[in-house]
Specification:
It is elongated and about 65 Å long. By secondary structure, it is an all-alpha fold. The longest helix has 35 residues. Helices cover 68% and strands 0% of the residues. The chain has nine helices and no strands. GO terms for molecular function: protein-N(PI)-phosphohistidine-sugar phosphotransferase activity.
């Protein structure tokens, strides 16, 4: 839902946050208490699950798009954007790509922008529910913590939290790639015509 708001230039987390964050924080606290008591963690869907595992690179899982623009751009515009956006997006500040690429009001980017978080949610949720990945322990990890480090810390220092983030980021790169390539080719063609 957050990503749909972002597509129209409305800060999705600010709209949905007052509704879902109290519930997520409550689940996080229940997990924290269970973790401190050495008991089974009851909740997967927590604040850390959403903001540290699902939204890697901010809204729309834009860390994947930052990787693509930084390493694979052929157009000068995207090369410059890649250099400018990789650092902030690594700290979950997605605005350089939201407004610079842009993903906001860009119907061509709607599919990956909405699909990547859904796929990440499903993969991470089922990996945690099957016991392949440690659940979030309820430790409040700042939302600006870079991906992979965030997964490691949110899962209580378990490597499985970092590994699932590497896997989902790689999948998100694959999701974004065809859409990025279309955009990059169009910008490259425009630059050659100018």
């Amino acid at each position: 839902i957050q990503c749909f708001f972002w597509m129209f230039g409305i800060h999705g987390a600010q709209v949905t946050g007052p509704i879902i964050e109290p519930l997520l924080l409550q689940n996080s606290d229940v997990n924290r208490i269970a973790y401190q008591a050495g008991k089974e963690l009851p909740n997967i869907i927590t604040y850390e699950f959403l903001y540290n595992f699902v939204f890697s690179g901010g809204a729309g899982c834009l860390f994947a798009l930052a990787i693509l623009t930084f390493f694979f751009s052929k157009s000068q515009e995207n090369k410059t954007l890649g250099k400018l956006s990789i650092a902030p997006v690594s700290f979950q500040v997605a605005e350089p790509l939201l407004f610079g690429f842009p993903t906001i009001l860009n119907i061509k980017m709607l599919i990956p922008f909405v699909t990547a978080p859904v796929v990440t949610t499903l993969i991470t949720y089922f990996s945690m529910s099957m016991g392949l990945v440690a659940k979030p322990v309820g430790a409040t990890i700042p939302w600006t913590t870079p991906p992979i480090i965030a997964g490691f810390l949110a899962s209580g220092g378990r490597i499985s939290g970092a590994v699932i983030q590497v896997i989902t980021i790689a999948i998100n790169v694959l999701i974004y790639y065809p859409f990025f390539k279309l955009d990059d080719n169009a910008k490259l063609k425009s630059e050659k015509n100018d």
